[in-house]
Amino acid sequence: MGGWDAVVMEEGVGRTLIPPHGEASSGPLSLAERYARQRRATLDLCDGLSAEDMSAQSMPQTSPTKWHLAHTTWFFEQFVLGVRVSADDWARLFNSYYEQVGRPFARDRRGLLTRPSLAEVLAYRARVDDLVLALLDRDLEPERASHVELGIQHEQQHQELLLTDLKHLFAQSPLEPVFRFPPSSGAPAPASLSNGLRLRFLPGTSGPIDIGHEGPGFAFDNEQPRHPAMVARHRIANRPVTNAEYRTFILDGGYRRPELWLSDGWAEVRRAGWDRPLYWSSELDTEFTLHGRVSIDPHAPVCHVSYYEADAFARWAGARLLTEQEWESDADPGDIASGHWRESGVFHPTAAIRDVGVRQMFGDVWEWTSSAYSAYPRFRPAVGAVGEYNGKFMCGQYVLRGGSCASPESHIRSTYRNFFYPADRWQFMGIRLGVDG
Amino acid sequence: MGGWDAVVMEEGVGRTLIPPHGEASSGPLSLAERYARQRRATLDLCDGLSAEDMSAQSMPQTSPTKWHLAHTTWFFEQFVLGVRVSADDWARLFNSYYEQVGRPFARDRRGLLTRPSLAEVLAYRARVDDLVLALLDRDLEPERASHVELGIQHEQQHQELLLTDLKHLFAQSPLEPVFRFPPSSGAPAPASLSNGLRLRFLPGTSGPIDIGHEGPGFAFDNEQPRHPAMVARHRIANRPVTNAEYRTFILDGGYRRPELWLSDGWAEVRRAGWDRPLYWSSELDTEFTLHGRVSIDPHAPVCHVSYYEADAFARWAGARLLTEQEWESDADPGDIASGHWRESGVFHPTAAIRDVGVRQMFGDVWEWTSSAYSAYPRFRPAVGAVGEYNGKFMCGQYVLRGGSCASPESHIRSTYRNFFYPADRWQFMGIRLGVDG
Amino acid sequence: MGGWDAVVMEEGVGRTLIPPHGEASSGPLSLAERYARQRRATLDLCDGLSAEDMSAQSMPQTSPTKWHLAHTTWFFEQFVLGVRVSADDWARLFNSYYEQVGRPFARDRRGLLTRPSLAEVLAYRARVDDLVLALLDRDLEPERASHVELGIQHEQQHQELLLTDLKHLFAQSPLEPVFRFPPSSGAPAPASLSNGLRLRFLPGTSGPIDIGHEGPGFAFDNEQPRHPAMVARHRIANRPVTNAEYRTFILDGGYRRPELWLSDGWAEVRRAGWDRPLYWSSELDTEFTLHGRVSIDPHAPVCHVSYYEADAFARWAGARLLTEQEWESDADPGDIASGHWRESGVFHPTAAIRDVGVRQMFGDVWEWTSSAYSAYPRFRPAVGAVGEYNGKFMCGQYVLRGGSCASPESHIRSTYRNFFYPADRWQFMGIRLGVDG
Amino acid sequence: MGGWDAVVMEEGVGRTLIPPHGEASSGPLSLAERYARQRRATLDLCDGLSAEDMSAQSMPQTSPTKWHLAHTTWFFEQFVLGVRVSADDWARLFNSYYEQVGRPFARDRRGLLTRPSLAEVLAYRARVDDLVLALLDRDLEPERASHVELGIQHEQQHQELLLTDLKHLFAQSPLEPVFRFPPSSGAPAPASLSNGLRLRFLPGTSGPIDIGHEGPGFAFDNEQPRHPAMVARHRIANRPVTNAEYRTFILDGGYRRPELWLSDGWAEVRRAGWDRPLYWSSELDTEFTLHGRVSIDPHAPVCHVSYYEADAFARWAGARLLTEQEWESDADPGDIASGHWRESGVFHPTAAIRDVGVRQMFGDVWEWTSSAYSAYPRFRPAVGAVGEYNGKFMCGQYVLRGGSCASPESHIRSTYRNFFYPADRWQFMGIRLGVDG
User: Domain C201-436 is of which CATH architecture?
Assistant: First the structure.
């Protein structure tokens, strides 16, 4: 079967400590339970992958699966355990960008790290899991507990990246490997049964509004502090832009008309030769997915478009993108539970079904906002190397909101701020339109 | 003598129509007078330059002086006259980036346009001036008049660019040419006589505040519409960061400490090998200016630093940059008249003198803000190709405020938004600090 | 244990057909025996490597081990079997550069081919081996037999490349993996026991001389036809340049003196920042080898230097490189048997021992000649895609002679022409000096 | 009128010392006369150019006209006068690549040297001319005389480069400036009156032959020493490949068939997007010349093709390029006088007329040979910095023979070796075919 599972079984390391994902549990989970679950969930994503699949890197922005496995482990080793479990050199190899704790290995060369082997990385994971779980048996001082929590959230982010990075890698191969078949009940249909939801613009919430996170639950530093903002009158689309709509934009010469584009966007279109979303066939009829090559569903949200493309599409449509404040003020946290998340086993966005209110704010596709990623007023990064987590990226990137079909459901909040460069396309990124109200 | 003036005299074209700059005039100037004055002012900047000096291009972001002369003329030809005065090909050569009126000549190859010659470009200017001034003798329909006004403002922007681009060109030559000697009265002293103003942080204006331009005077579309914004409590530095302060940052290892930098900034530091402001000598004691190489005045504002450097310096200093809303709410338009502008003939920032309130918000150096350049709520670009003026650049750049010693005084407002990429350094860019209030 | 050997055993494919390398045999080997031996020898080189080790690519010029395994197999499938054994897509993946039989997969992206897996590639090898060996049981038509012979020689070339490419990959890792420990008897000593051979120049053979291959044994098309050439009077060094001598060149400022370098070489020194041979430590005392990091033996031949470095060293030494005609006229085929080859298990050059005549022309290090790689008079490439083997590379490269410690002994002839770009360093390349006679 | 001539007149410098080109003279010219003539000839080429035309640089391989004027002068200052006439910095600016006499200014930035101005450079020329001519009034020691001779030859080389560099510059402008109109008698006809010479292959000279220069006249070091070589039996084409023939190659898919190309050549075709000779229109019917855009003469030699294209064309034609030894053994020095040279005023190759023997070996187009540029046996570069003239370029380039319509007639010999990189196209380069005999 080729996966690493067999290796782990032979090595017999640690895994018994971690209950399988999805196991019933009564009441809110303890930190230890949540730790074990998320660590296990990461491994579950690797089923069916060979050591080679998990070791290659297809572009500087992506990382090998094995590196994700090791890096998330290093995070706990570095910031929770505080003692070196792995060899010294490993710390350098699996540090992503924390310059304060040693010079990281070059990001664009992670695919060259054939050593340590997958088996060694799995053993490293198991050893760190043992130690962290032992720690969690005791009472933890608050800072260390908060680092465990941060590590769990971090683990979930890398679960999503693991999937998007793997998709990009597999897309490079003429063999177009299938990562996993969709569950029979949830397969993305070649053409959605629904006739599609008519695009409508509904009134959004405006005026002086408090934005950002406050309260007991976990949130990243970049979602804080909660603060007042002035939100202009606007209307919000009832669903994301669909493949059919985006195809119309293409057929209308969208990629050949400079007046529709930001100056930097037009330069990128010409430089990179873009004429369709990433992973679409040149005939605009099929797309490569984690379930292999499939027909494009006209009613499903368009996906894998850059900020430049989202902005150009909106201009073509006579609309605009929303600011992240508009988005947040319009989002209903109660909708998270009904979103399409990774747990569904369908790793591709699907069409909205019920035509009630504003749909699909959560799950399916991350939604580009028109907001450059920057600090909230009185933003304070955490003290120490953990403070490098978010703040130092507040330049040149744009905020996306709402999570995707590759996000773990428990990871996303209405205040959650994701961020990528305007030319990035390999995440599950889509378009939510707005207009002035 | 080598300048192009002689050529113009021989050709005897048009110049008599334009009164010399600085001529006394009573009462507010007519549009025609302002047109003539600004067109003349551009030419005055070229005194002492050879045709060769005016034809070379030192990097893709800069343009040859001759190109500035032609491009500003093309702007009036295209948007005011509406008829072709020059040869058809010229329109393509001197269109900067207006994709809707023809495919512009490659921006990074403007230095290869040895034809038309300087003499031909000067004749082209004279011919267009004749036609525009003739037009201004009559009553203009409002849209055309507004395009003349836009063209004058555009002319002024290129006057500043002409100076900064020329400075960059001259800095490439081992001969380090002097563009112009400073007036004897206003020379930047090798070391300022003042002892320097102690850095202090004064209370800024906060709360819900209206931002942007409204009213009868000219403003660019990107300063509009006026709208309410929420400004957080903050304090503002009484003056820009000085050379002495910046030197301390350098000596404290500022360029070698990744924890001080944005991630993109640190990448740029390593890629470009930055270890000091553009134009500083490696000994940190002299700098190249439009007046030749001079000693660095410790008390003058530091200049020619990127956004990345401004941000890193602020972090090192335990402060931050201001948002553009904070800057605008703190700026007093009454201070414009006392600023240090291009008209002084001193093309380099000088030290503040009087220690009263917040100094040097206007003139001396453009001040980087922490605000990514984006549209104000309900922003509408102008209809037609003129709409490409500002809007399509609202991505990836940062706002600077307040004008510089190379700006024409009459060009700047408290709502004025300049914008450059975070790695740009060749404008007169400096640092104004702020702190949370 | 992590190697792929276990996998093969489990899969149980084909291997029994191939006798282990080194098995005693009486009389000259049949084509089938030679085929089986060399195919087996390639696999033997992979002992101890993990699937990940065999899948990564460290630069465009190198290929993953797995790709070498598959490509050499494709060669037999394409040119000997003539029927498709593998899936259609595989042919494209494992075609290196034969444009006439389909568009090859991008050379610099071979590390992204995680599929087919190592196990699949090994099965592919076994299947093709079965078919080729079955074919060899029968009488083959001469052209097909000659393609089997060509495939065996090709297999041997890739055995050497497999080693040099792997060395380059392992050198990128901070972990500096050991590929294999040297046999206890043959270990490269930290410092050679010998005192080193004094460098002397011995008279070479000159005048009109026949160059190139003629006769019944195998030779590549680029060694043919045999033809008269005029060889000038010259003297040849008794041994390759040693590490000690090269270190003296470095300490004498060799890498800082442009007058010693070809113009292109000096440009490369500055561009790439070269200041020592590839794999040497900056302290010039240790080097990375396939046996891990070892002390540099002063008396062993210097290795992993480019043509530019070889040429600069020669100029510094008051000598020059030999032409390939001079080299060939001076080489004694009888010395091949006493050379240091891959079969020794010592994958690194070692010091010459006996001071008699001209030593080490064969084995240890490939010797750069001053001859640009070009066609011999009346050179005819083979008909069909096999004709792309050599001829289309006759531009921009230089000839090297004599084989290395990574070459199979049976592969090298005195007429053998290897060729690489003047900036290449990752092969076992060294320096043989000459002077005018 | 815009040319610099007026400036010279005003400045009144030196020019009277130099007799106008073409002036009658009886008997062989003295060194002083030849010096004066060639220095004057360089200036004559600049008639009609503006200071701007003479200051721009269109690619790293080319230089501005003004730089050529200054560099050739610096050569005499440095190697003949031996005292500094210009400012110290100028020596650095106008040193091309002589690393032993100071670090040259970056070659790809020569277009930024707006200072010294053209007028200053002309004065510098005049001053150096005065001094050199004064020197030549006296008896010179032999080494200095030989440096004057070398400087004159060097001046002639730069006369040709000045033309080819200017052509490249003018070709970048949409205005397509005409450098000079052809003399009425010698204009390249839109279509040649001749019906074209049928291509025939004539027997060449083979066997052991002496190659290279020997004797009293001037020759560069790279043409020496004369030495025996073995030339294979071959036949040589009676004229260069014509535009009509090359067009047939294009229409036959020449640029789309990888099997016709060297591996490096095919990579360059794809990288640079080549599909026709430099300066040809995409319709293959007109070409840009120093006389402006003209119809392509089907019978004239094809021009501005790279080595890669010459080699691919030859392969397509079932022929090959000649080695430089074959070329030299077939060339008749007596044909030089009847060649088409720069002095004709027709700066573009024209069709052969008389169908007798081998035509156009000299003049019209440089002919690519299949010989990589390398040292002749016992080659010795001159001592000192002058030794950098040729030897350090003996890597990566190919030899061209015979001179072009842009070469001064008196500059070319049958032993003359020109050399360029295989991707270079901006010289007047063409194709002479050969076949095995």
Answer: Alpha-Beta Complex (3.90)
Q: Which residues pair with D313 in a beta bridge?
A: none
Residue D236 CA to residue D244 CA, distance in Å, equals 19
pLDDT 10s digits, D38-91: 999 999 999 999 999 999 999 999 999 999 999 999 999 999 998 999 988 899
| A244 Cβ contact partners less than 8 Å away, ≥ 6 residues apart | A196, A298, A299
CA–CA dist A157, A420 (Å, integer): 13
- B:65-104 residues touching chain A, CB 8 A cutoff: 97, 99-100
| D287, β-bridge pairs | D280, D294
Whether residue B107 contacts residue B68, with contact meaning beta carbons closer than 8 Å, is answered with: no
Q: Select from A97, A100, A377 the Cβ nearest to the Cβ of B263.
A: A97
Answer whether B50 sits within 8 Å of D51, measured CB to CB: yes
State the Cα–Cα distance between residues A363 and A350, nearest whole angstrom.
Answer: 10
Q: What is the ipTM of this complex?
A: 0.92
Touching A (3+ Cβ pairs <8 A), the chains are B, C
Tell whether D210 is within 8 A of chain C (Cβ).
no
Domain range summary for chain B, segments of one domain joined by + = 5-171, 201-436
- Write out the two tokens for B215: 């009213």
Q: Which residues lie across from A340 on neighbouring strands?
A: A363
CA distance D373 to A222: 62
d(CA C119, CA C11): 8
Asked if A266 and B99 touch (Cβ cutoff 8 Å), the reply is yes
Q: Indicate yes or no: CB of C392 within 8 angstroms of CB of D262.
A: yes
CATH 1.20.120 holds for C5-171: yes
Which residues in chain C are contacts of A177 at CB distance < 8 A? 114-115
pLDDT of res. B197: 87
Contact A395 B422 (CB under 8 A): yes
pLDDT 10s per residue in chain A (437 long)? 232 332 322 333 333 344 444 444 457 889 999 999 999 999 999 999 999 999 999 999 999 999 999 999 999 999 999 899 998 889 999 998 888 878 889 999 999 999 999 999 999 999 999 999 999 998 889 989 999 999 999 999 999 999 999 999 999 999 999 999 988 755 544 444 456 789 999 999 999 999 999 998 999 999 999 999 999 999 999 999 999 999 999 999 999 999 999 999 999 999 999 999 999 999 999 999 999 999 999 999 999 999 999 999 999 999 999 999 999 999 999 999 999 999 999 999 999 877 788 999 999 999 999 999 999 999 988 877 778 788 899 999 999 999 999 999 999 999 999 999 999 999 999 999 999 99
The reply to whether A114 touches chain C by the CB within 8 Å rule is yes
Residue B258 forms contact with A (CB below 8 Å): yes
Q: Note whether C318 contacts D: Cβ–Cβ < 8 A.
A: no
Q: Which of D51, D55, D177 sits opposite B115 (nearest CB)?
A: D177
CB within 8 Å: D114 and B169: yes
Are D2 and B174 a contacting pair at CB < 8 A? no
Collect all residues of chain B within an 8 Å Cβ-Cβ radius of residue D118. 50, 52
> Both tokens of residue A230?
């002035």
B contacts of A311 (beta carbons < 8 Å) = 395
Q: For D95-104, what is each residue's pLDDT tens digit?
A: 988 888 888 8
Q: Tell me the pairing of strands D366-372 and D429-430.
A: parallel
Contact C45, C4 (CB under 8 A): no
Local structure of residue C86 (DSSP, 8 states): S
D-interface mutation test, from B95, B113, B114, most D Cβ less than 10 A away: B114
Closest CA to B369 of B415, B430, B315, B317: B430
Tokens 């129509």 sit at which residue? B17
